[in-house]
Specification:
Structural class: alpha+beta
Radius of gyration: 43 Å
Helix content: over 70%
Order of helices and strands: HEHHHHEEHHHEH
Strand content: 5-15%
Strand order of the largest sheet: 2-3-1-4
Largest sheet: 4 strands, antiparallel
Number of helices: 9
Shape: rod-shaped
Amino acid sequence: MNIENTYSNLLLIIKNKIRLFLLVSLISIVSAIIFSSSYFIDPKYKSEADLYPSNLTAYSNESETEQLLQLFFGNDIRDSIFNRFDLINHYGIDTSIEAHKSNLINEFKSNILIKKTNFESVHIEVLDTDPVIARDIVQEFINQVNKKIKVLHQQKSNEVLIMRENELANKKQRIDTLESNIKHYSVKYGLLDYAEQSREVTAGYMNMLLQSKKGQEMQKAEDLYENLKAEGSHFQDLHLQLNLARIDYNKLLISYEESVRDINKNLTYTNTIVFPEIADKKAYPIRWLIVLMAFFASNLLVFIILLFINRLKQA
């Protein structure tokens, strides 16, 4: 009789516990379904894009993808998106509190995912209650980062352009100085072409000496001969310097024109592989996952409570 009573009591306890678990499971499932509905949690839609860097120059050991990823996190890009979509009102941030900007940033970060993939591309995900805004924010990220890179490149190109302009101006001043000196020697000493004049004057002067000629022609030859001896080498050096200066000037002019082209060129710095789209299905919350977690959590809690009660009875 005692064994039968014990067995019956055991079955009763088991049935009661099963009923308890079933009741808790039912309550947790129904509660999870209700509280995960759109009445309590605003559904969010996801838009995403994948892109590769283009026309970038990596710094130090940083890859082009890492550079592009870093640019996406610029606070100027973030703030431009805040303003473009009026996110402080769209997210319902209370502007009366002092930390409203921090709350806006935290809400924004909770809806944004930008990461480097295993394929060296950049992946962008945006969640929003409005699927169109989610798509537009992804596209605005891409537009803003292209604009930022273009501005950075133009700033660098402007610096190079100014440097080239200064180098050209200095080289032009050097050429003008050399040409002025050469003109001075030409007028004062009658020097035009050192090598050619040296041959002709020397030959003419020696013929006049052999013919024992005197007079004005002889005096001119002697004067030019002396000028060539005294100033000819320096005059020739001026011509060599002028030729080298002109060669350098032409090289600088080519570099200058390249800098002008760099400023005026219109490039894109991202190649979008997966374009953002308007989602037709919500991505958050995942109701089946919430229900499943609520089911296991509630039953685990009941199990722990029953175990604790059983220990108290045994104590």
